[in-house]
């Protein structure tokens, strides 16, 4: 079945370590997104990519990095520069057209910094 | 002022009640989405609307483009409907802007 797979589901990290969250989709979508969700808050955009080999910063990109070397993959690295990385991270994808493009989400990755 | 607002923030209903969640937005959009987030965190898309009304089972979504307002209705609510319901709009830059969510609890 088509969908988005995020891994790991739970991740614990020591301060000062970089971690990479995986996001893979087999929906043939051009657009992919990374969002952060904190308790009681809405989704905030970290990075997005509308096409392979191109990505743009979202509203809260500081301390994060991404790559988009393949259409189906959009990994997110949480670097040691991110001051408050403990959060729930969601990857999503959609078609690129303006009047199409249902939004599909992965199951999320919960990162805890110890 | 947030670009996408929802009301109410929290809602508790008895099983069987008719439920309405409202969304208003202040930006130009190409589409509006209603999403459902369960306690485990996963999010599923319920509706994508650009005009009019859509119905899936007990769920109905409407949008009024002129008034920049959308509503999500749940008929004959059930405890399994308990979740956070999120309104999101897609702007002309093709990115999504999310509302803060409405937490719904349906009691048996």
Structural class by SSE content of chain B: mainly beta
Number of strand segments of chain A: 11
Order of helices and strands of chain B: EEEEEEEEEEE
| Large-scale geometry of chain B | globular
State mean pLDDT of chain A (0 to 100 scale).
91
| Helical amount of chain B | under 10%
State the major sheet of chain B. 6 strands, mixed
**How many strand units of chain B?**
11
Strand residue percentage of chain A: over 45%
Low-confidence stretches of chain B: none
Order of helices and strands of chain A: EEEEEEEEEEE
Low-confidence stretches of chain A: none
Estimate percent helicity of chain A. Answer: under 10%
What is the count of helical runs of chain B? 0
Distance between the termini of chain A: 36 Å
Strand-residue proportion of chain B: over 45%
Biggest chain contact: A-B, 26 and 23 residues
- The radius of gyration of chain B is 13 Å
The outline of chain A comes out as globular
Brief descriptors of the model:
heterodimer; A: 114 residues; mainly beta; seven-stranded mixed β-sheet; four-stranded antiparallel β-sheet; globular; B: 108 residues; six-stranded mixed β-sheet; five-stranded antiparallel β-sheet; 11 strands
Notes on the protein architecture:
The complex is a heterodimer of chains A (114) and B (108). Chain A has strands spanning 4-7, 10-13, 19-25, 31-37, 43-51, 54-57, 64-66, 76-78, 87-94, 104-105, 109-113. Chain A has 114 residues and is an all-beta fold. In chain A, the strands form 2 sheets. In chain A, strands 2, 4, 5, 6, 9, 10 and 11 form a 7-stranded mixed sheet that branches. In chain A, strands 1-3-8-7 form a 4-stranded antiparallel sheet, with no helix packed on it. The N and C termini of chain A lie far apart (36 Å). In chain B, a hairpin with a 5-residue loop joins β4 (29-37) and β5. Chain B is globular and about 40 Å long. The model of chain B has no long low-confidence stretch (mean pLDDT 93).
